[in-house]
Design a protein that fits this description.
Length: 597
């Protein structure tokens, strides 16, 4: 029974007690007033006393608790029956069918019509009419059949009118009770969503997912979970859940099944009211007996990053406001995840900027060293040649000049690299793709830089006449950088293999050494601008940290990657280029000394 209906019936009981006391008071003075008929005083007084005691007992009963348990309505029936019997005896004691007290029966029928269900109203009316007829039949004299019929009709009409009015009132009460329940439910949902918005405002994505699942459970779902879609694989995982079988939570599932699959297909909220019979359902959850289930997409930056699901084992339907609440939670979760991802991206950017700042400081120190060292040598050798030219023999002069040229070449290479990167930054460095003989270019580069390898073993394995489509100048710079890198970062006992081999579509250039390898922490950053592995204060090789970075940039201009792999004892740098047919020369006309057109 609703609280509003209980409150209405409590008020009806209070009014009934007041009316009873008023009637008892009037009946107590009735014998002392003129105009009444014959009264059997002994019986009359006994009835007054019984009615008074009954009123006191009725007033003292714990009606609120009785109505909550359902016993209150049956006590009301007993009270009405007791009143009808007392009125019947009072009518019999004051003249029978001709007694003026017959109108008191109308009070009991009105009370019944105001307080009882329809069957109770009819029962009280029928019992009252039976008592009226019994008094007329048993009494010595009656008012006549016409009067009795009129009295019966009046009782029926009064009951009908009271029943109509009370029915309208009860309907209003029921509607108000339903509205109150609906309002309370919506208030609960809004409170849960408001609490969720506060609780999931966290910058840790895992904490956000865990808390949003808890918020869905607070909405009254017997089970709920968040399904995280894998960005690289067609699967989803369940990082957080409530009330689900462990074998489901611990597994990895295809993203085409269950509620996740339906949400991905429709890109919208999905509600199923009989999940156990749905052919697309996850077998473990269908066997668990889930009925009503709702699934909502969680969007991050416009993509469906996760699916929020709530299900019930008892209910066969989910109210629209509950669906709205879950959608609000999913939207808030999406915002929280977006904020968390952006915060993490900003943190990564800050870390990257700090790393770049460190690398640039290292680069400045390195470039200063790379420029100062050859300049110092060139300046010193130049002063020596200028001041002691006549004292030096030809061999020493040639050696000093050779050292000047070598250092000038080093200085020029460093400056060329810096200028090339300046062009890359400005967007002015472009790859001019023409057919050229890659085998010949790599062979010349190996011969040109062979002196850098010193005691190291350098083996050349180059297939001849390997023509590719690319920018010859830029690719030669890449090969030079790879060879110089192998010469700098391998011990004197190392073996280096420079190879050019072909496949059906590509030519592959590789530089492989059996040196100590590259640390895993450095390998992830190798090829980034200004990056040089190891400790800047202890490394014993020269360089700007731009050689491999330039190689990667050049390969990107050609739409190809620079591949780097390394394990202890083997490091390989390689790239692929699309093969091309060698250019066809026109026949030579010996008579004119020109190519024939």
């Amino acid at each position: 029974m609703s609280d509003l209906l209980i409150e209405y019936r409590l008020k009806t009981v209070r009014v009934g007690v007041v009316v009873t006391l008023i009637v008892i008071g009037e009946l107590a003075v009735y014998p002392f007033m003129s105009g009444h008929g014959e009264i059997h005083r002994g019986s009359y007084i006994a009835l007054i006393v019984a009615a008074s005691v009954g009123a006191v007992v009725i007033a003292a009963l714990p009606w609120h608790r009785l109505f909550q348990t359902g016993a209150g309505v049956w006590l009301l029936y007993g009270w009405s029956a007791f009143d009808v019997v007392l009125i019947t005896l009072a009518v019999a004691a004051t003249g029978g069918g001709r007694s003026p007290l017959v109108f008191l029966w109308a009070l009991t029928t009105v009370f019944a019509a105001s307080s009882y269900p329809r069957n109770g109203q009819l029962a009280v009316l029928g019992f009252t009419c039976a008592c009226l007829v019994a008094v007329v039949v048993v009494g010595d004299s009656g008012p006549g059949s016409a009067v009795v019929l009129l009295e019966l009709v009046v009782l029926g009409c009064v009951t009908l009118l009271a029943a109509f009015l009370s029915g309208q009132l009860v309907e209003r009460i029921a509607a108000e009770a339903a509205t109150r329940v609906e309002s309370e439910r919506r208030a609960h949902l809004l409170a849960a969503v408001a609490a969720a918005s506060r609780s999931i405002a966290d910058l840790d994505p895992d904490v956000v997912l865990q808390r949003v699942v808890g918020c869905v459970a607070d909405l009254g779902f017997s089970a709920c979970n968040i399904n995280l879609l894998d960005a690289d694989e067609p699967v989803y995982r369940v990082p957080h859940s409530h009330g689900l079988p462990p074998e489901y939570v611990d597994a990895v599932h295809p993203n085409t099944i269950g509620m996740v699959g339906l949400v991905r297909e429709r890109a919208a909220t999905v509600v199923i009211n009989d999940y156990a019979k749905n052919a697309r359902g996850v077998p473990q959850l269908r066997q668990a007996g889930f009925k009503a289930v709702v699934a909502v997409p969680v969007r991050v930056e416009g993509r469906i990053a996760a699916v929020l699901v709530g299900g019930s084992l008892e209910r066969h339907a989910i109210a629209p406001e509950e669906v709205e609440a879950v959608e609000l939670l999913a939207a808030q979760a999406g915002v929280a995840l977006t904020n968390a991802e952006r915060f993490e991206a900003e943190r990564a950017m800050v870390r990257r900027l700090a790393e770049l700042d460190r690398l640039k400081q290292d680069f400045i120190a390195t470039v200063s060293h790379e420029l100062r060292t050859p300049l110092t040598v060139i300046h010193g050798l130049g002063k020596t040649l200028e001041q002691r030219w006549a004292d030096l023999d030809d061999d020493l002069r040639q050696e000093l000049l050779h050292r000047v040229n070598d250092n000038a070449a080093v200085l020029g290479g460093t400056i060329d690299t810096l200028l090339d990167f300046a062009q890359l930054e400005a967007g002015r460095l472009e790859a001019r793709l023409v057919p050229f003989d890659l085998s010949a270019s790599v062979t010349l580069a190996t011969a040109r830089l062979g002196s850098l390898f010193g005691a190291r073993s350098l083996r050349v394995d180059i297939e001849p006449d390997c023509w590719v489509l690319g920018d010859q100048r830029l690719l030669e710079r890449v090969v030079d950088n790879l060879l110089a890198n192998a010469a700098k970062h391998t011990p004197d006992s190392a073996h280096v293999v420079v190879a050019v081999r072909t496949t059906a579509d590509d030519a592959i250039v590789s530089v492989v050494d059996d040196g100590p390898g590259i640390a895993a922490a450095d390998l992830a950053h190798l090829g980034e601008r200004f990056f040089r592995g190891g400790d800047a204060h202890t490394r014993n090789t020269r360089g700007t940290g731009l050689g491999l970075a330039f190689g990667r940039e050049v390969m990107a201009l050609h739409g190809r990657p620079l591949d780097i792999s390394s394990v202890p004892g083997r490091t390989e740098f390689s790239f692929r280029m699309a093969r091309a047919a060698p250019p066809t020369l026109a026949p030579w006309d010996s008579s004119t000394g020109t190519e024939r057109s």
